Amino acid sequence: MFKGNSLVLVFSILMLIFLIFLSDIPPLVQVLLSLLAIAFLFPDFRDKVLKHKMRKVRVALLTSTTFSIGLLFSSLPMVGAEAFSFLTFISFLVVLLYSLLGNLVIGLPVSILADYLSEKTNRFRVVVSAIIHLGFGFATFFIAQGLFLGASICSALFFIWDEVTRRKVEKKERAMTSSF
Questions:
Q1: 4 and which of 23, 43, 135, 162 could share a cystine (Cβ 3.0–4.6 Å)?
Q2: Could you give the dihedral angle defined by the CA atoms of residues 54, 60, 66 and 67, in that order, rounded to the nearest 10 degrees?
Q3: With contact defined as beta carbons under 8 Å apart, do 104 and 36 qualify?
């Protein structure tokens, strides 16, 4: 199939797609999850996701956590701090789950695309990456207006966390090469 794929990987992805379409999740989410699974058939995509101890996956998790905590604290003045209850905690977990799903299914491939396109322009890499990240977040307005604000905030957070973790990795790599 694609260079560097084993039969086990292809079979595993096909089984995952089969399970996704057997589930009760909405059809749009099924398609997006299936596309993400298919993306793992491409060695370049796998390399980018798994590079530097799965940095991009950690960025997606950090983005979702930051967004969920921010949303939780921004809603506390409306309901009152004493109203923090089990229901609030469940709401936090639901927001975390959905934002993580969105960040993994949409944010991760967009970030990989942003890396690919911005690496071509060394001088303006950060600007190009920011435009791509934020552009896809703002494009949500045309797809699902109800998710526009959350997707835009998550795209900005994803960009910020991606740059922070990238600089940490680059700093470590420079320290490793200068020590030899």
A1: 43
A2: 180
A3: yes
Tokens of 42: 């491409």
Cα 1–chain centre separation: 27
Q: For tokens 């960009």, what's the residue?
A: 159
Chain centroid, CA 99 distance in Å = 9
Residue pLDDT, tens place only, 131-170: 999 999 999 888 888 888 999 999 999 999 999 999 998 8
Rounded to 5 degrees, what are φ and ψ at 145? -60, -30
Residue 133 to residues 43, 111, 124: CA-CA distances in angstroms? Answer: 23, 7, 14
Dist CA 34 CA 44 (whole Å): 18
Question: In this prediction, what percent of the chain has a pLDDT beyond 70?
Answer: 91
List of residues 6+ apart from 113 with CB closer than 8 A: 132
Gyration radius (Cα) of the chain, Å: 18
